[in-house]
Amino acid sequence: MTIDIINYTDEQFAELTEEQILEVEDAQLRKNRLTAQLEEDKRREKYRLLEAGVFRSPVYEKLCDALEEEYDQEVESIRDALLFYLRFASRPSGEESAPYPLDYSLDYAERLAVVKGYYDETYSDPADRFAAFTADKVARNYLGEAYAGLYDLYADQAGV
Predict the structure, then answer these.
(1) Of 44 and 14, more confident
(2) DSSP secondary structure string, 79-119?
(3) C-alpha to C-alpha distance for 119 and 52, rounded to whole angstroms
């Protein structure tokens, strides 16, 4: 199964608990069902409009746009609920330490700013920054979905 409801790296998925993995799987399956339903709804509308003799009009495109908008809203709702769950279910037991302050009350954008600020200020060499960042196991959990984007940025800067 392809997981595209959230953008996590393989390392991040490997660190999830069994319960968290089940939540991700459930959210992905719900998204997959919505995707299949969207395609079926589009097919049904196309057939209905063909039978009515108005398929070539802009009605089909408008119907598809409305169906896709509803789909996007439902997927975003599933995604937001999953990210909220992971944000608070991934709290450490207290033995975590990081070279930057850990504040789990911050949202992911604020957490990203703290971690990125630390690595940008501490490491001037992109290769050293990337090596230090990839070795930081706390960041994988702490940054959630934002980890992959920062990983890609530092990898590009390091030429990896």
Answers:
(1) 44
(2) HHHHHHHHHHHT---S----SS---TTS-HHHHHHHHHHHH
(3) 62
